[in-house]
């Protein structure tokens, strides 16, 4: 029985390694820090990629901090469609929808005019391929069902979006109106 358990652990480790699935845990615990939520129509979000945090503010200041994960552990700005990077800059929530896989989804207005200018400059300088596209569909959303642990282990799994636990995504979805400003920092 012991050899079967050992074999199962080894096989699981090999499968995870082959799939590029690497968990890493930071020294901090993925928890939500909150003040009592105030009723406000003037919220704004600041996402800090280097600290894996989404901070919610209102006109009086800080309200809550939520743990988040991204597309890739390469914490640079999104360059083109398919690179799995999370864009940096200033955005707005332009739509709210329920996604069949990712639950509560807050769609951002990526690419903005600024993003398109950066994209075209990179393309003209040969930094990205001539046939590249800027991409789109970036948002803040939940993990897939039964995958909240990805947030606990800071596992970046999205295609460039910002993901948090299902309960936190629902809370943000219920709280934030379309038009909410979102800043994403390196």
UniProtKB/TrEMBL annotation:
Pathway the protein takes part in = Cell wall biogenesis; peptidoglycan biosynthesis
This protein's species is: Lacibacter luteus
According to its UniProt record, which protein family does this protein belong to? Belongs to the YkuD family.
The positions making up the signal sequence are: 1-24
Name its GO BP terms in alphabetical order: cell wall organization; peptidoglycan biosynthetic process; regulation of cell shape
**Any Pfam family:** YkuD
What residues sit in the active site? 141, 161
Please identify the protein, giving its name as recorded. Murein L,D-transpeptidase
Report domain L,D-TPase catalytic positions. Answer: 43-185
For this UniProt record, give its keywords in alphabetical order, as a comma-separated list.
Cell shape, Cell wall biogenesis/degradation, Peptidoglycan synthesis, Signal, Transferase
InterPro entries noted in UniProt: LD_TPept_cat_dom, Transpep_catalytic_dom
GO MF terms listed in the record are: carboxypeptidase activity; transferase activity
Top-rank lineage group of the source organism = Bacteria
């Amino acid at each position: 029985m012991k050899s079967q358990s050992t074999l199962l652990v080894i096989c699981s480790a090999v499968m995870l390694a082959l799939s590029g699935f690497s968990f890493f845990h930071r020294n901090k615990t993925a928890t939500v820090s909150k003040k009592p939520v105030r009723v406000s129509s003037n919220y704004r979000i600041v996402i800090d990629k280097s600290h894996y945090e989404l901070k919610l503010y209102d006109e009086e200041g800080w309200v809550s901090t939520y743990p988040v994960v991204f597309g890739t552990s390469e914490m640079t700005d999104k360059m083109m469609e398919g690179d799995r990077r999370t864009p940096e800059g200033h955005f707005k929530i332009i739509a709210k929808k329920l996604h069949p896989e990712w639950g509560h989804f807050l769609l951002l207005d990526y690419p903005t005019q600024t993003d398109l200018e950066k994209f075209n400059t990179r393309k003209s300088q040969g930094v990205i391929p001539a046939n590249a596209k800027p991409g789109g569909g970036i948002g803040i959303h939940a993990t897939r069902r039964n995958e909240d642990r990805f947030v606990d282990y800071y596992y970046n799994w999205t295609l460039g979006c910002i993901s948090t636990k299902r309960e936190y995504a629902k809370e943000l979805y219920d709280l934030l109106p379309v038009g909410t400003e979102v800043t994403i920092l390196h």
